[in-house]
């Protein structure tokens, strides 16, 4: 198992290279001249040329790339054009943690409600509860984040006045964004848990458990759920990733100063180093989470051949 | 042949189990009578789909409700009717008084629990032992079923064991609480021939050692000859012949039983014991023949067979046969109606 973990961590190296390469190329291939923008609107051609030289944009592409990852590895992602502060500071001072917090709470909500709904549905197949839960899940899946967010604000903040409209800081601020972010995940996890659970409850070893005299609850939770969770874990990992994407919209709707909003603001301001850095951090976060999920999947699923 | 009730550990009377599907009712088990004497072995044979597994699942009330349901009949175990028991009472009986081994050792064990835990679980439930004692007993059970280095094996997961080893673990689970009756549903069908022999030997020895009564379901008449005292031959949800093992092989009476025996390959032929050599096929469960269910395939069938269902009747030597040939009616009948042979 230890060996597997080590190997799995080594496997992320090519992925990381791919990610950095993609981010790097993206920034170089999109239209717009970084030097021009950074030199300012009133700069003359010499000043732009000087800026280009300073940024190393005249060097061969591969040199630029190695410089980029070399710097990134030491935590240097350049300076923001907009604020002139180091990109890493901008990201890790607070914004990164806000988004991570939001994503974790959103995932936790998704897992909690998704599992409960999925188990209820599976153990009461075709009942009223099952059908209604699955209809709700279908709605949850098809609702766009921005619309759900606005509806929640309208209902709970504007009409009922229970929760703040926007911002961040207290737990009350977190509720609506987390629900907005977690709903689609909860729906996916509920459907996945239901089908996985139904499949498992049909297996021979469930019949064996009943034949041993094991009670209904223990059969469902000890013998059923444990096996049914194996495919669900993968979904949870993917969910966390798409949550990062959803954060862009959700943070904008709720005016939360996280990474998502940082990307939007930086793109608007043509802040190249900032966009590049934020996307890189998100990508790395995604890779890390997926690695953790893979390892826990392995811990759960003892059947996977160790070689 | 006159046994008192006390000698019978299990008596199934007129058991009827149906599945209610979208296309209609499937009478999987339709009026089955059989009994097992204490410490003895009953074999159940018959083609695929004849209701052998459903009979055994009905005894332990392990049907997938509400689709499958016992419609009527009694399952008398030690003088009490299991059909009338509550769910809780049934749980106390399962794995404790009556145990079951299934056909598929590959899928019948839980892949996410260690073998030891799967044995210990039923010990904890029924004998109320603590975790440590139950585990020690589980290791003892593994030793009993002939698994080498049982302490190590107990900590392993099913995927780490071969098919034969897994079936030994299944046997350990089923015998852990010393049941009075063991039901084995084709316990060796999925295994290699050499392993089959070992597993049957093991079941036989443990049965003798522990005094367990055994109901064994099989396709293999060799297994019947090897293991059983009595045999019930099933066809389309009904018992068509119920006899001593010796009589089944020396003096079979039902045309279906005779067909089964004739379809056993000779020793020099290298074929699996396929029972489908009887001409024709099992009737569609939704459209069962009105009279004798074997009539469409029976070389002796006469007019009465097509219209009237024969009863399971005792013959001169004590065996029970469901066939008109063995009734007084038969002589009055005309010619055979089927043109086979
Ligand atoms: N879940 C189910 N739904 C509908 N019909 C079923 C179901 N399970 C079994 N049956 C029907 O019950 C009949 C008896 O099945 P059973 O499994 O007892 O046969 P069997 O004698 O054990 O056959 P095999 O030798 O293949 O194991 C079959 O005709 C089958 O179609
Ligand atoms: S009752 Fe008739 S059809 Fe049925 S087995 Fe006997 S002879 Fe054949
Ligand atoms: Mg069967």
Kindly describe this structure.
The complex is a heterodimer of chains A (307) and B (341). Chain A has 307 residues and is mainly alpha-helical. Chain A has helices at 2-29, 34-39, 45-55, 61-73, 87-123, 128-142, 145-159, 171-201, 204-211, 216-253, 259-268, 272-300. Chain A folds into two domains: 2-73, no CATH class; 92-300, MetI-like fold (Orthogonal Bundle). Helix content of chain A is 79%, strand content 0%. In chain A, helix 1 runs antiparallel to helix 12 (272-300). The termini of chain A are close together. The longest helix of chain B has 18 residues, at 193-210. In chain B, strands 6-7-8-3-9-10-12-11 form an eight-stranded mixed β-sheet, with helices on both faces. A four-stranded antiparallel β-sheet of chain B has the order 2-1-4-5. The A-B interface holds A 203-205, 207-215, 222-223, 226-227, 230, 300-303 and B 60, 62, 91-96, 99-100, 102, 104, 107-113, 121-122, 125-126, 157, 159, 170, 173. Bound molecules: adenosine-5'-triphosphate, iron/sulfur cluster (SF4) and magnesium ion. The site of magnesium ion (MG) has 3 residues of chain B, from helix 1. Chain A: InterPro entries: BPD_transp_1_N, MetI-like, MetI-like_sf.
SSE blueprint and pairings:
The complex is a heterodimer of chains A (307) and B (341).
Chain A: H1 2-29, H2 34-39, H3 45-55, H4 61-73, H5 87-123, H6 128-142, H7 145-159, H8 171-201, H9 204-211, H10 216-253, H11 259-268, H12 272-300
Helix pairs in contact in A: 1-12, 5-6, 5-8, 5-10, 5-12, 6-8, 7-8, 7-10, 8-10, 9-10, 10-11, 10-12, 11-12
Chain B: E1 8-21, E2 24-37, E3 41-45, H1 52-59, E4 68-77, E5 80-81, H2 87-93, E6 98-101, H3 115-127, H4 131-144, H5 150-154, H6 163-175, E7 181-185, H7 193-210, E8 213-218, H8 221-227, E9 230-235, E10 238-244, H9 245-250, H10 255-262, H11 303-307, E11 313-314, E12 320-321
Parallel strand pairs in B: 3-8, 3-9, 6-7, 7-8
Antiparallel strand pairs in B: 1-2, 1-4, 4-5, 9-10, 10-12, 11-12
The structure holds adenosine-5'-triphosphate (ATP), iron/sulfur cluster and magnesium ion.
Residues 19, 21, 26, 28, 46, 48-54, 64, 67-68, 285 of chain B line the site of adenosine-5'-triphosphate.
